[in-house]
Design goal:
This protein is mainly beta. Helices cover 0% and strands 54% of the residues. The protein is built from no helices and 11 strands. The strands form 2 sheets. Strands 2, 4, 5, 6, 9, 10 and 11 form a 7-stranded mixed sheet that branches. The protein has a 4-stranded antiparallel sheet with strand order 1-3-8-7, with no helix packed on it. The N and C termini lie far apart (40 Å).
Length: 115
Amino acid sequence: QVQLVESGGGLVQPGGSLRLSCAASGIIFSSAAMGWYRQAPGKERELVAIGIAGGNTMYADSVKDRFTISRDNAKDTVYLQMNSLKPEDTAVYYCRAVYRNKEYWGQGTQVTVSS
């Protein structure tokens, strides 16, 4: 059974940083494309960042130069380092895995940016 478990969300002031983690199980992690998405209240879920097995990455324009996706294949974990956070980054952040043409989602972790 595939499981994705996110952690690291919380409340942070504008300009602050957080690091999200997503631990995967039930897949060959090194063969999976991993990504982070977010959904703010009243809005559709949107792509934040993706990292494929070959090391390539892609970011939404709104987070470029502030967020960094990385993965540790030895720990079956993908990370999202978020710096210079803004109130508009407030959302539930979801981890997504694409493995053998199937997609899997985590349960989400809340990130709130507020003073």
